[in-house]
Sequence to fold (379 residues):
Amino acid sequence: MNRCPNISSLLRKARHFIGLATTATATATAAATLSTSTPSKSAASAMDDLKTLKTRLCIIGSGPAAHTAAIYAARAELKPILFEGWMANDIAPGGQLTTTSDVENFPGFPEGILGMELTDRFRAQSARFGTEIFTETVTKVDFSSSPFQVFTDAKTVLADAVIVSTGAVAKRLNFPGSGEGPNGFWNRGISACAVCDGAAPIFRNRPLVVIGGGDSAMEEANFLTKYGSRVYIIHRRDSFRASKIMQSRALSNPKIEVVWNSVVMEAYGDGERGVLGGLKVKNVVSGEVSDLKVSGLFFAIGHEPATKFLDGQLELDSDGYVVTKPGTTQTSVRGVFAAGDVQDKKYRQAVTAAGTGCMAALDAEHYLQEIGSQQGKSD
Fold:
């Protein structure tokens, strides 16, 4: 892990701001031209038309699922429109990969690749095949009738089919040292994905911590024993909520030690490498604060799928994930599909998200053929 993604993130954000400013300038120029050549009422009407777009397929999202769907759809000449969002869920366009430093488990990059660079490549490949990408956040949708309507603050899109691939955000705790920036150790020893980051050299043969008490925490702790010298599970209660079998696997592992009734108060550096060096841990029963020397901390307290903007128009499960028909990406609304972490709460990997993005594009293409949507009908 290193600070390169932070620099890349700033450059990426600057690029999007420039793009937005350019779009705003072009719109203002168009408005000025209309106002000098036609009556004001006609000019207003024309500007309204500029804000309404029509497409055969609209994709909502910016991660591997969204861009894989866009690549397949664009190559199938569906001319997709993709909304990548602007700091949607407080994450830059590109999704959770933009918060990751070295990605070493995505096929095709034997030396690894920075998360931000990988998402930039996704985007470039989508654009190469003709995907129209807007750096705008979808605020609401209307799936009650066809064509479906997708809304941002600046546009309305009428689409014959929609792919929802807005992902899920890993929940993180907030305490001194847990965030980004010079005083935080996010991506410098703190992560929210053991499977993604656990094998990194920074964690090899060093003591590690997992925070959580569910099945994910047990699974991640067991996974990390392959790399860490010792793995501590810090849990704020005196019992886990994980299933009995997952608890048994963790508690019987000789490399795992549970720190019960405890919470992390602070993360601090090692003073030399500029990475995580340890934690201040408080026992919530006795009030005692102890020092725990570790080189890695992994949040395993769940994820929150980005589905609020759907406003209940698609069937969701009890955790808020979009429900899809087994073996497909079809949602409860015919013609609306879901791909990636927004519908996958088990695997949550970039490569599995890309796979479901492919599935969604093929499902959407077959659906459009089925309803007789012809080339140019909704363009």
Confidence is low (pLDDT under 50) at residues 1-47, 373-379. The radius of gyration is 23 Å.
